[in-house]
Amino acid sequence: MNNWIKIGLVSVVFTTATAVLSQDEEDDRREKLEFGARAGLNISNVWDERGDEFTADSKFGFAGGLFVGIPIGKFLGVQPEVILSQKGFKGKGSFLSVPYSFKRTTSFIDIPLQLQLKPANFITFLFGPQFSYLIHQRDEYAFGSNSTILEEEFENDNIRKNILGFVAGTDIIYQNIVISGRVGWDFQNNKGDGTSVSPRYKNQWLQFTLGYKL
Predict the structure, then answer these.
(1) Model confidence pLDDT, tens digit, residues 118-136
(2) What is the pLDDT of residues 23-82, one digit of tens each?
(3) Domain boundaries, given as residue ranges, for the chain
(4) What is the DSSP string of the chain?
């Protein structure tokens, strides 16, 4: 009787394991074309900052948009995205020996083209180039009696609207929910010709979003 019980238990365990593995194979989404949306926040700042005694601190902004996962086999894929991304910084410095504070919020349409590495069904690593287009910029100033002069100096800059950069990150997937983290930085600075004396910089940011896959 004990042997029959043991055989029965082994049979149940084997059947259960086979069913779980079969279900995992059925639920494996790595070879499926997927669409989704995600939204969250950026923590942005600048690197390679240049200007007249200019230093910068990070600020928060919105990030959200759409993505599509295009499989290339089971373990590789491509994930293009279209993301509305608020970046910028809080800065301070001096102009004509007069101290000032400054906050810039820039809104970009980011289009990253990322390679997917999919070692398991629940996690994806991504990295690739990103094209960004500036659609709006808002500046806030505080520098006393010289505000008009400095405001004109900032607003008359030759701002670069088209910027190339790089992003990398990870997607954690649970059923249809996607938790995403990204780090990104620009290769090009914000000046169209590089001749301006007001703060010249390159964006960098951390991005955290929650998404849903269809």
Answers:
(1) 999 999 999 999 999 999 8
(2) 444 467 888 999 999 999 999 988 766 655 667 788 999 999 999 999 998 899 999 999
(3) 1-29, 31-213
(4) -HHHHHHHHHHHHHHHHHHHHHHHHHH--TTS-EEEEEEEEEEEEEEEEESSS-EEE-EEEEEEEEEEEEEETTTEEEEEEEEEEEEEEEEEEEETTEEEEEEEEEEEEEEEEEEEEEEETTEEEEEEEEEEEEEEEEEEEE-GGGHHHHHHHHHTS-B--EEEEEEEEEEEEETTEEEEEEEEEESS-SBSSS--SS-EEEEEEEEEEEEEE-
pTM given for the model:
0.77
CA 48 → CA 67, 113, 169, 187, distances in Å?
A: 30, 24, 22, 10
Please give the Cα distance from 87 to 160 (Å, whole number). 14
Query: Measured between alpha carbons, how far is 8 from 6 in angstroms, rounded to an integer?
Result: 5
Measured between alpha carbons, how far is 24 from 138 in angstroms, rounded to an integer? 49
Do the beta carbons of residue 69 and residue 93 sit within 8 Å?
A: no
At 77, list the tokens. 């894929």
For the domain spanning 31-213, the CATH number is: 2.40.160.20
- Nearest Cα neighbor of 99 from 137, 55, 50 is 55
Alpha-carbon distance of 187 to 173, in angstroms, equals 30
Rg (CA), the chain: 24
Beta partners for residue 95, in sequence order: 98
